[in-house]
Amino acid sequence: MSDRGVFVVAFLTVVLIVAGAFAIPAYFPFELLKSLIYVVIALMVFFGNNTYSYMLGIVAPILGMLFNILLGGFFSEFSVLWASVRMRPLPTLDTPLHALAILSEILLVILCVRAWRKEVTGPFFGKVFGVCLAVSVVYVAVLAGWYVYGIPGTGRLP
User: Fold this and answer.
1) Among 126, 75, 98, 112, which Cα is nearest to 20's?
2) For the whole model, what pTM was predicted?
3) What mean pLDDT do residues 58-71 have?
């Protein structure tokens, strides 16, 4: 039996990212691409593929957050959330939904680690980890390519 909490949080992450995509139309395709990995995680949990879904739920959000930190958006998202909580005016291309999505990604990692320890008997660092790491690296590379070449006004990475 797959963990229902992992499914719910993965689906919640998809909803928050897609809602953020609708809030900022300039980044719509990028945000939809960003939510794709969480759709895959939710589908794999739904169909009972525990080992790969849990490991992908651990590795992919961590690499995505590292990519977001490198772009400089991770901490600014939380400042936007804090400004929203304090009822301060927000810049035009900012929404607090991104910070809420980051919080749900952190919760997804925690739930996936808990579910992995409870349900999977195999080693943590093994074939499953290697496959999920490779998939996550390709996912982040595609996101980086889309960010550099697909979003107008972002320019090239330094």
Assistant:
1) 98
2) 0.87
3) 92
